[in-house]
Design goal:
The protein is α/β, with parallel strands linked by helices. It is built from 16 helices and twelve strands. The protein is globular, with a radius of gyration of 21 Å. The protein binds uracil. The site of uracil has 9 residues, from helix 9.
Length: 432
């Protein structure tokens, strides 16, 4: 078998066998197949697609590239949640400590920023000294002792997804349903979770643009889970405007800490509640939504969710003082306010534009291995349906040493990312 023949086969839209998929993945991991050949195959997949069976083989090959954790002797239920990616999506940072403070063992395997979206691992690394690369043993022991750990893929857990994920990020091969499904579902299977809840996002700030495609991806993930003997629950949510107010690594962690202190916006709260609900009900800890809301509100109010976040930071070597002292974060030294040129209501706030602007400011990567600026990002002061007066600040851009041409472009995109109209629009529906 030769990689070039398999690239040709997929280019022609033909279906791979299990052996062919394993050949590609295993030899890529051994370095026998190079980045350029894997990139060509991924691009062929983007144009020709994978069948449901090929998707299941690819998912299984990612799982088989590493180990599978087994928590059965420490907990009956172990939860994991994953989002297909969005802008300002910091749900994991608040949901994981909330679940753990409610007694749910939570094994969270996360990724770095992908394409224009942010990644939990990059966000957490904005906490000084925070260590995301846990060995399987450290991950296991932390879940046993603290009830929750958030780790990047260790060399032993779905390493094939880790390597291919980084390649997809810089070869414009992210937005394919089968590739997203294999990437997400493989991590969830390897993490040993018994309750898997996925947040499939659609809209301008997601890889999937329409509700119909989101439903197809959700169905594919559920089906892949079934083929690989795992039950998967899915929430479908909109990513038309960014989630919450802060976009960028340090800024999103700060918003998450504020959330756990009880200061939150409605959209981040609602999606957190929906995902917590599915998990708590799956784990037999809640009966219905009323129950879920009471439980979640209680751990925020009594400080135990915040305390759990502190425990995560401490266990993973981070500086816990960030909880009360945000000056310990790197925040862009320069601030530029984008003002409203008219009075009225915000009717559009395009997540993709905000993401592009934040990336130009330094919050994301252009190439594999690029260093990101944790302090770069955007704080939204207004969201869709909010009232604005001429001269009000709609958003603030934070940055450090950005080339002038990139800064000019970031400002231009930010200025065009929103629309003001005299007619008020309703807050957009978030959860479907
Ligand atoms: N999140 C992942 O882990 N993988 C993807 O492909 C997309 C989002």
């Amino acid at each position: 078998m030769r990689a070039v023949d398999l690239i040709e086969k997929k280019k022609q839209g033909l279906e791979h066998t299990k052996e062919e998929i394993y050949f590609l993945v295993e030899n890529y991991m051994k370095g026998i197949i190079e980045d350029y050949q894997m990139s060509a195959w991924l691009m062929a997949v983007c144009f020709q697609g994978l069948s449901d069976t090929e998707t299941a083989y690819l998912t299984q090959s990612f799982v088989d590239s590493g180990e599978i954790l087994d928590f059965s002797n420490i907990a009956k239920h172990v939860a994991d949640k994953h989002s297909t990616g969005g802008v300002g999506d910091k749900v994991t940072l608040v949901l994981a400590p909330i679940l753990a403070s409610l007694g749910v063992h939570t094994a969270k395997l996360s990724g770095r920023g992908l394409g224009f979206t942010g990644g939990t691992i990059d966000k957490l690394e904005s906490i000084p000294n925070f260590r995301c690369e846990l060995s399987n043993e450290e991950f296991f022991n932390q879940i046993k002792n603290v009830k929750v750990a958030i780790s990047s893929q260790s060399p032993n857990l779905t390493p094939a997804d880790g390597k291919i994920y980084a390649l997809r990020d810089v070869t414009a091969t992210v937005d394919n349903k089968s590739l997203i499904c294999a990437s997400v579902v493989s991590k969830k299977i390897a993490s040993g979770a018994t309750s898997i809840v996925l947040d499939v996002k659609f809209g301008s700030g997601a890889f999937i643009k329409t509700k119909e495609e989101a439903k197809e991806l959700a169905d594919l993930m559920i089906k892949t889970g079934k083929l690989l003997n795992r039950k998967i629950d899915v929430v479908i949510s909109s990513m038309e405007q960014p989630l919450g107010f802060n976009i960028g690594n340090s800024l999103e962690v700060i918003e998450s800490i504020e959330f756990l202190k009880g200061f939150y916006g409605e959209d981040l709260y609602d999606i957190t509640l929906a995902l917590a609900g599915k998990t708590l009900i799956n784990c037999g800890l809640a009966y219905d939504d009323t129950d879920v809301k009471k439980m979640v509100d209680e751990v925020i109010k009594n400080g135990s969710a915040l305390q759990k976040f502190k425990e995560i930071i401490k266990a993973q070597g981070g500086n816990v003082n960030v909880i009360n002292d945000y000056s310990l974060f790197e925040i862009g030294k320069n601030k530029m306010e984008i003002k409203a040129l008219d009075s009225g209501y915000i009717t559009k706030l395009t997540a993709l534009d905000i993401a592009h602007s934040a990336k130009l400011l330094g919050a994301g990567r252009d190439k594999k291995g690029d260093k990101i600026d944790f302090g770069a990002g955007i704080i939204l002061k207004k969201k869709i349906s909010d009232n604005v007066n001429k001269g009000d600040t709609v958003m603030e851009l934070y940055y450090n040493n950005v080339e002038q041409s990139k800064l000019d472009e970031a400002i231009k995109i930010a200025r065009n990312s929103f629309k003001i109209s005299k007619i008020k629009v309703e807050k957009p529906q978030l959860i479907f």
